[in-house]
Amino acid sequence: MPSESPLAALHAAAEAVRQQLQVNTFDAAAVQRLTDFIEAQRATIQPADREGVVMALGCFLGQCLVDTYRGEWAAGPDGSTGVGLAGKLFFNPFYLVSEQLTKGREQSVAGFFAGIPARLATTGQRKSWIK
Description:
Elements: H1 6-21, H2 28-41, H3 47-69, E1 72-75, E2 81-85, E3 89-91, H4 93-103, H5 109-114, H6 116-122
Antiparallel strand pairs: 1-2, 2-3
Helix pairs in contact: 1-3, 2-3, 3-4
């Protein structure tokens, strides 16, 4: 029996979280719902469950990046799984979820997500001090 492709597994996990969060699409509103969900659950997640929670919620955040900002799932320079944007940016959604679980709203995934357009706008622009 062939095993499920890594991309299919990422999509399946993201879809399961989408249904659990009761959102219709993978967009900014869904990421805000994810932030609220993480905050509501932070104190109750047991250490033994943390890795699975980070994986599931990270798949959801990654799919929101893919759908909203036309990203694509990819392997990063260090071999980690994440989302590439505009052929120049790479983000690890699992790390971002883990950071909010650890540090709270100061590292919210919604705050990160809202900052993506500014990052995309500056991608590829030369610094004025470089001649």
